[in-house]
Amino acid sequence: MPERNFPPPPAATIADDELLEGDEVVVIVDDFPDIVGLLREFLEQRGFPAVAAGSAGELRQHLATGNVALVLLDIGLPDADGMQLLPELKQSRPDLAVIMLTAVTDLQTALVCLRYGADDYLTKPVHFADLLTTLRKVLEKRRLTIRNRQYQRQIEQANFRIQLAHQLAMKMNTAYLSMVELDEILNAILIGITAEEGLQFNRAFLALFDEAGETLEGRLAIGPGNREEGGRIWQDMVGRGLRLDDLLAKVESGSGRTDSEVNRIVHALRVDAAATDHLLIRAVRERRSINVVNGHCDSPVPLELLGLLQEDSFVVVPLYSPSRALGVIIADHFVTREPIVDERVRALESFASQASLAIDHCRLYMAMQEKIKELEEVTAVLESNKNLLIEAERYSAVGHMAAQLAHSIRNPITAIGGTARLLARKTDNRDLLQFLEMMTREAEKIEKILEDLFSFVNRSKPVCRRMGLGQLIHKSLLLHFRSMEEKGIRRMLRLPEIDPEVEIDPELIQQALVHLTRNSIEAMPEGGELMVEVLVEDKEVRIVISDTGGGSGTADLMHATDPFFTTKQVGTGVGLTLVKRIIEDHGGSLRLQNRAGGGVRATITLPRAV
After folding, report:
1. Cis omega (within 30 of 0) on the bond before 125?
2. Which of 73, 297, 360, 483 has the lowest tally of Cβ within 10 angstroms?
3. Around Cβ 480, how many Cβ atoms within 10 Å?
4. pLDDT at 515 (0 to 100)
5. Which of 166, 141, 126 is nearest to 32 (CA)?
6. Which phi-psi region, left, alpha or beta, contains residue 30 (left: φ > 0; alpha: ψ -120 to 50)?
7. Is 559 a residue whose pLDDT tops 50?
8. How far is Cα 52 from Cα 40, in angstroms, rounded to an integer?
9. Which of 58, 65, 60, 70 minimizes the C-alpha distance to 118?
């Protein structure tokens, strides 16, 4: 057949390649093959795939097996009336467009066709320009109707999702406000992610950074350990009619369900924060979600993570506050194997933002409670030991002053008194005797004062009893709590898991610890770090007190425990002397050393109780 030149198409609102989608076609229904062939050739030249049908039966076959968008339907068919087919076509295929073709130019016939659902009406012989215009107009109307319905459905779905998200946010916020323990908050977060009224993920894992921010550690998880179990859990929840409020209430009451298998998985999850190329650390560091699909994403996926989760499709969403990274949420569809679409990821991101605030606020609350508890302990210790610091220094000073007085005053006073008594026996002069007797009496008074002073500070043997060191060290540090807070000194206490027992006089050992701690604090006027560590060996226990102050010269350390030796502008210099004496009275030793990085290390060695 020779190629025909058809008239150009008119301008369109929607491009021709958008009027039909996928494998949609136009069906030309007419019992005249020449007309069908001509129309089909014309439409295909204009980019509209077309097929022919010579009867109503063939039309039904095309409708059953093909994707028909529009039908050019002749009224007079050998096996049916085209007008009578219209209700059937419209009922079975509401989106099907129909243009009627007929040689009858009767207005009433056209109106009946339109009333039965035809989109337009053309009379034979068909002009190609009119056909193309009508075809495009009808297909545009059809496409706009379908798109409008799709958009309406999307708007309704979006509105429904917004309502669900709002309801979920309100319920979760109520739950967060009623919970104070971090584990309760974490459990509530996981329930919100996996519940039917929540985000509907099958499983969820929570990993948080440790206190120092050096390690990302798996903390808690929820979900089935295997796919069969997931089906049973779901049926159980449906059968019992459990809703989100019920599940959150169980968490708050402490009766929430713990899934051993998923928690075994999450507890095995540990990632060094320095591993910046690791998928989980990258998500936190870049503060973006990462959707892993079939083991692949825009970042390398660690094989050990895939093996641990036993799932190759999951989403990682970071948890962070304005000041620091908190951790990550890992969620998947382990049971249903549904793909995790962008919409679900965005919903989880919004949920994670609220969860991050809840975690951060919970930690701040816990820190505040810990601080309050610590302050209460400090107040109680200070109240019960308020005179300990003053008494320890006064006792030490008086004792060593008495030692010096013994050498500096007692011998001269004894000589003066003895000489006065000797002279009194050798003279009869009343006036002279009066002065000599006065000298004798005053010398005796001074000797008596010295004897009383010696009696007051007389070294008593320690009253020892078997006890642990941990609580004693803790109380000694609490006595200096305010001073350390004011100077910005960080304190670190490292005790063995089993508190070692020693035979000590607790009051004397606490005096020694108080003196050493105070010396370390005074060595760090601009702040620093105070470390107290207890080391246990076979036959002895060592208490090591280290500071980051300026240290002391070698000569100063050698004389530090000498009576009245001091490098301070204020002080008696007898504290370390008292400490040394107390430790030695317990059969131990005191050693002072300069630290390599600055500061002084004081080591108390005591015999271990047997």
Report:
1. yes
2. 483
3. 20
4. 84
5. 126
6. beta
7. no
8. 7
9. 70
Instruction: Residue 114: name the closest of 100, 133, 94, 129 by CA.
Output: 100
Q: What span, in angstroms and rounded, lies between the C-alpha atoms of 518 and 520?
A: 5
Percentage of the residues of the chain whose pLDDT score is greater than 70:
77
Query: What is the predicted pLDDT for the residue at 69?
Result: 92
Q: What's the confidence (pLDDT) of residue 543?
A: 93
Tokens describing residue 397: 């000073």
Q: Among 446, 465, 349, which Cα is nearest to 406's? A: 446
Which range has the worst mean pLDDT, 145-149, 167-171, 311-315? 167-171
Residue with tokens 């087919």: 85
CA 48 and chain centroid, separation: 57
Q: How many other C-beta atoms are found inside a 10 Å radius of the C-beta of residue 585? A: 15
Cβ(534)–Cβ(470) under 8 Å?
yes
Output phi, psi for 450, to 5 deg: -65, -40
Residue 241, pLDDT above cutoff 60:
no
> What is the crossing angle of helices 575-585 and 388-405, to 10°?
90
Extract the tokens encoding 414: 């004894």
Which of residues 343 and 290 earns the better pLDDT score? 290
pTM for the predicted model, two decimal places = 0.47
Unique residue bearing structure tokens 């215009």: 133
Point out which residues pair with 351 in neighbouring strands.
Answer: none
State the pLDDT confidence band at 72, using cuts at 50, 70 and 90.
Answer: very high
Amino acid letter, 400: H
Dist CA 606 CA 464 (whole Å): 13
The rounded mean pLDDT for the chain is 80
* Contact in structure between 43 and 50 (CB atoms under 8 Å): yes
- SS3 of 573, please? coil
Find all residues with CB under 8 Å of 520, minimum gap 6, and list them: 530, 545, 546, 547, 549, 599, 600, 602
CB 215 within 8 A of CB 254: no
Structure token digits, residue 289: 């979600």
In terms of Cα–Cα distance, which of 482, 602, 483 is closest to 551? Answer: 602
Strands (E), 368-488: 465-468
- With H, G, I as helix, E, B as strand and everything else as coil, classify residue 237: helix
Secondary structure (3-state) at 29: strand
- Longest CA–CA span in the chain (Å) reads 173
Encode 539-554: b = buried (16+ Cβ within 10 Å), e = exposed.
Answer: ebbbbbbbbbbebbee
From the number of C-beta atoms within 10 Å of its C-beta (0-12, 13-18, 19+), residue 42 rates as buried
- Contact yes or no for 472/514 (Cβ under 8 A): no
